[in-house]
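Justification of resources, computational component.

The compute hours requested in this renewal are based largely on the per-chain cost of generating structure records like the one below. Each record pairs the submitted sequence with a full structure-token output. That output is archived, and it is also reused by downstream analysis tasks.
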Amino acid sequence: MPKLNTIGVTSDLDGLISSIKEKEEAKQQSLPDFDASALEEDWNTFRSKISAKSVIAAFKHVEFTSDGNSIQVFVPTERIKEVLLDSNYFVDISARFKQENISHQISIDKERFPDYDDGGNQVKPKTDMEKYQEMVKKNPALEQLRKKLDLEFDQ
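The structure output for this chain reads:
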């Protein structure tokens, strides 16, 4: 049985492992430090890759603050929070920055978004009388026509 030269294989393997480690270290050093501006740039890059209009619209109502190795995220509704979580933005976020173990917390804070309308302020349907009164404001001759034709509203 022929003898294998394991010394040559081991040294090649050691060289390959050290080469991989050097490349990983260089890649880690090229990553940006985790701060507010780097987070904003990363978020804008992520948003620019999204094509769904509803998701783009939802992400206009997301605000971040960062502190150390944590991100505080604010959204106006539970639905936007779900869309954000479904987007997988926070998956491996630590791999995009030099810092490790970056944590995040998403909070619903309607007060931070006073201009956001989630459709909860729906106007009640108008009665026939209310509709008629608005029409008369726009065209007063309508009232004269109603009287001339002797029309009345049902009670």
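The radius of gyration is 31 Å. The CA atoms of residues 20 and 26 lie 10 Å apart.
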